[in-house]
Design a protein that fits this description.
The chain has helices at 7-11, 14-27, 38-57, 86-104, 120-132, 146-149, 152-160, 166-177, 199-217, 236-252, 291-304, 313-331, 337-359, 362-371, 376-383, 389-392, 396-401, 404-409, 415-419, and strands spanning 66-72, 78-83, 137-142, 180-182, 185-187, 221-225, 228-233, 264-266, 277-281, 284-288. The chain is globular, with a radius of gyration of 27 Å. Helices cover 54% and strands 12% of the residues. The relative contact order is 0.09.
């Protein structure tokens, strides 16, 4: 236990609060129940900040309720988020900045979620390594509504094992118990750490560090990313035994619920971990992107390349680039080179159809084709075609005019380039 006489003072130090403000501003995010965005909060804190800091020191500060929002989950259903006010996000971030170095020393090297200098890619690589080492059965433990089910007393007792500073403990508990505003009504929050504030990920790691310690005590090979935990064993029999034992530990000791329907024991190729799966190719374990993840990406691309969407080509390309960059950066860990080349070609074809529709009139089409180096005869013939947009988008002359280089000059990013 390290000296913490002035932990709350270190949290409320002006430099720490300024750093927290900058971090919250950088993360953007919506206003909470008070309706104040980052700029309005900045003005409010200039006037009231000193008073709020004093209230926290004295243990009298009461956070505002979080604003409940629901966002669609990729596999259907809704994920509940609780958005604290910007003021509370700043104070939570200030707490996280001082508590993270204290707890980091305790956390497992096999826990990768919401930690400094750790990533989902590292977690995927660790899982791949286990399979390559012969641990080719995975026990996939699914925690049911983890962020909504955490028991406050259990969590606070774990925090208090390390943190002895009373004002800090009081502030954390107040944040756990801040009510939830839904449809204009405030409900008390008796369990859970609502996702949406900076403190929630750290608290979830403190809670699930108990699971990590138990897995290490049993000598098991595992990878955990937030509440997503995979354990790797050598046989189905061992897998079933581990699943039963660990489920019991989670429910009895951590007072959390394991979703038995979603939890499973099986081959890694049949399970999805952090959006990817694994397969064997020439005695090497490789990563692939499951079909459903590709389909989700393609559905988004289809919307952005829909020729009936009335936006400028510039805006359309900007949105496509954001999607391609984000998806490519994440999934470049997998074998998707062939898929990327095919996807790029499909995007360009759909954009050619959009461009052809934009040009509308025969005269405009003819003039633009000439500008792009097409002969007068071919330009006139194609400008007068009665073929539909989709068919013309694959025409060799249109393909030549609106070629790869043309789209590069328009600023379009290539998925193949992003992943290379």
């Amino acid at each position: 236990m390290e000296s913490q006489e002035s932990l709350i003072d270190r949290i409320l130090d002006p430099d720490n609060l300024n750093k927290a403000f900058k971090r919250v501003k950088k993360n953007k995010g919506a206003a909470g129940v008070d309706g104040k965005d980052i700029e309005a909060t900045h003005l409010y804190l200039k006037e009231e900040g000193y008073k709020l800091v004093q209230l926290i020191r004295e243990g009298k500060y009461k956070p505002k309720p979080v604003r409940r929002v629901e966002i669609p989950k990729p596999n259907g259903g809704k994920r509940k988020l609780g958005i604290p006010t910007v003021t509370d996000r700043i104070f939570q971030q200030a707490v996280v900045q001082k508590l993270t170095p204290i707890f980091e020393k305790q956390f497992s090297p096999y826990s990768y979620g919401f930690r400094p200098n750790r990533s989902a890619h590292q977690a995927i690589e660790q899982a791949r390594q286990y399979i390559e080492d012969g641990y080719n059965i995975v026990v996939d433990i699914d925690l049911e509504k983890f962020f909504d089910r955490v028991q406050h007393d259990k969590l606070m007792s774990l925090v208090a094992k390390t943190i002895t500073d009373k004002p800090t403990l009081k502030l954390i508990r107040r944040y756990l118990q801040a009510g939830i505003m839904e449809n204009g009504l405030v409900k008390p929050n008796i369990e859970g750490t609502p996702q949406g504030g900076p403190l929630s990920p750290l608290l979830s790691n403190i809670m699930l560090n108990e699971l990590d310690k138990e897995l290490e005590r049993r000598g098991l090979r595992f990878v955990r990313y937030a509440d997503d935990c995979n354990i790797f064993v050598k046989s189905m029999k061992a897998g079933e035994r581990v699943k039963t034992g660990i489920s019991k530990f989670i429910e009895k000791k951590l007072k959390l619920k394991v979703n038995q329907e979603k939890s499973a024991v099986g081959k890694p190729s049949a399970r999805i971990f952090l959006g990817v799966s694994f397969y064997r190719k020439q005695n090497e374990i490789r990563v692939f992107v499951p079909q459903q993840r590709k389909e989700r990406f393609e559905t988004k691309l289809k919307k952005l390349t829909n020729r009936n969407w009335g936006v400028s080509m510039e805006e359309r390309i900007q949105k496509i680039n954001q999607l391609v960059q984000g998806w490519g950066n994440y999934f470049k860990i997998a074998d998707i080179k062939t898929y990327a080349i095919k996807t790029d070609s499909h995007i360009r074809r759909r954009l050619r159809a959009c461009r052809w529709k934009e040009w509308k009139k025969v005269k405009t089409k003819y003039r633009n084709l000439l500008k792009l180096g097409i002969s007068e005869e071919e330009a006139w013939k194609n400008a007068n075609t009665r073929k539909g947009y989709w068919r013309i988008s694959n025409n060799p002359i249109i393909n030549l005019a609106l070629n790869n280089r043309y789209w590069q000059e328009q600023g379009l990013k290539s998925l193949a380039t992003v992943i290379s």
